[in-house]
Specification:
This protein is mainly alpha-helical. The protein contains 5 helices and 2 strands. It has a two-stranded parallel sheet. Strand 1, helix 3 and strand 2 form a beta-alpha-beta unit. The longest helix has 18 residues.
Amino acid sequence: MQQLIYLFRHGETEYNSEGRYQGQLDSPLTELGREQVQQNARMLKAFIGHAHDWKIISSPLGRAVESTEILCETIDYDKNNVEFDQRLTEVAVGQWAGLKMSEIQQTWPNLLLNTDAFNWYFHAPDGESYEQVVNR
């Protein structure tokens, strides 16, 4: 039996629109974020038809829960059947949570040396390491 996985990111949050890093903090979806989720959900519905045989697993973070609720409503899926998995939470960015990159660079300039777009957040004070994220 063939299995498919459709992976969705939450819609834009207030922190996203302000350029702030959330990590495991929560910031509600913006109106644009809700529209993004609805658009993606409509596309998903066109692919899968009836969602009753599908399994939906979500991060328990508020922005993901809100996105999942919009998804469920749009594709006619019982939100009580959603499974929440802590392993899907965002990487914890410790003391950098809620800050903009300019604030991070100003306060911790040396921690960003020799990093790139894919690994900088694993250097956050009190944040998760790459190994911790992989293990979870």
